[in-house]
Amino acid sequence: MTIPYQLYYWDGLQGRGEFVRLALEEAAVPYEDVARRKKGMPELLACLDGGQVDHPSFAPPVLRAGELLIGQTANILMFIGARHGLAPRAEAGRLWTNQLQLTIADIIGEVHETHHPISVGKYYEDQKKEAKARAKCFREERIPKFLDYFEGVVTRNPGRGGYAVGSRLTYVDLSLFQLIEGLRYAFPKTMARLEPSYPALIALRDKVALRPNIAAYVGSKRRIPFNEDGIFRRYPELDK
User: Fold this and answer.
1) Is the pLDDT of residue 227 over 80?
2) Which CATH superfamily is domain 5-84 in?
3) What distance in Å separates the CA atoms of residue 61 and residue 159, rounded to the nearest whole number?
4) DSSP SS3 for 20
5) Reduced to 3 states, what is the DSSP secondary structure of residue 63?
6) pLDDT score at 3
7) Pair 8, 43: CB distance under 8 Å
8) Are 154 and 200 in contact (CB under 8 A)?
9) Domain over 91-211 is classified CATH 1.10.443.10
10) Closest Cα to residue 183, out of 124, 104, 126?
11) In Å, how far are 18, 206, 212, 215 from 117, measured between CA atoms?
12) How is residue 148 annotated by DSSP?
């Protein structure tokens, strides 16, 4: 079997790499999750090293496709979407899809700040007081603001099927699925309270969950469980 893609992301974490994995799994494209195999970490670090590659990435995820080495989640998904039918064909549609993905990247950054509001170089335990304050703002103000936006995107989409863009599934739908799953894990009480206000978004999440390739992946050992080393972390004190 030919493996056209190598994905470089930290072993043991879903993180930003999971958005790429979901697109590859849905497209049924073989790929190698490099850092999860023995001695894969040196290869991951090499793609971040300007002394070894011409266009080093600042951080994973990175996707190798032949001679191409592509960094940044939204950039990778734009590439996969165009190649594997997970993005609109028209330029305006591709740009809109990428814009939505970049907005998802914004909330993902804010999720991380709920448990690391001061410094990524410090442990969560060293900034718990500040994390509680940041998480309170995120729960009460920022989650509703983002979900309001994405609910509007889905409900205003003129295409059939209840998707975010057009009448066919795109990588943004997969990423919204992952966003909802992650928020449910990290903030279960908050999401239980908020979800009734977002029927279109939750229906989209449920539609993605039922897709055969996604259901098979989520139920497999290839899907790394959410954990307290990733972006979405369950600290009960942050979800009061």
Assistant:
1) yes
2) Glutaredoxin (3.40.30.10)
3) 31
4) helix
5) strand
6) 76
7) yes
8) yes
9) no
10) 104
11) 23, 32, 38, 34
12) H
Q: Count the Cβ atoms, other than its own, within 10 Å of residue 228.
A: 11
The pLDDT tens digits of the residues spanning 84-135 come to 999 999 999 999 999 999 999 999 999 999 999 999 999 999 999 999 999 9
DSSP structure string for 72-121:
SHHHHHHHHHHHTT-S-SSHHHHHHHHHHHHHHHHHHHHHHHHH-SS-TT
User: Could you tell me where the DSSP H helices lie in the chain?
Assistant: 17-27, 41-46, 73-83, 91-115, 128-137, 143-156, 171-186, 188-194, 199-209, 212-218
pLDDT digits (tens, 9 = 90+) for 33-46: 999 988 899 999 99
Q: Provide CB contacts within 8 A for 74, sequence distance 6+.
A: 98, 101, 102, 105
The total number of residues written for the chain in this structure: 240
Longest CA–CA separation in the chain, Å: 51
Tokens of 137: 């703002």
How far apart (Å, rounded) are the C-alpha atoms in residues 147 and 125? 29
How many CA atoms lie less than 13 Å away from 37 in the CB half-sphere? 10
Residue with the two structure tokens 């998707």: 163
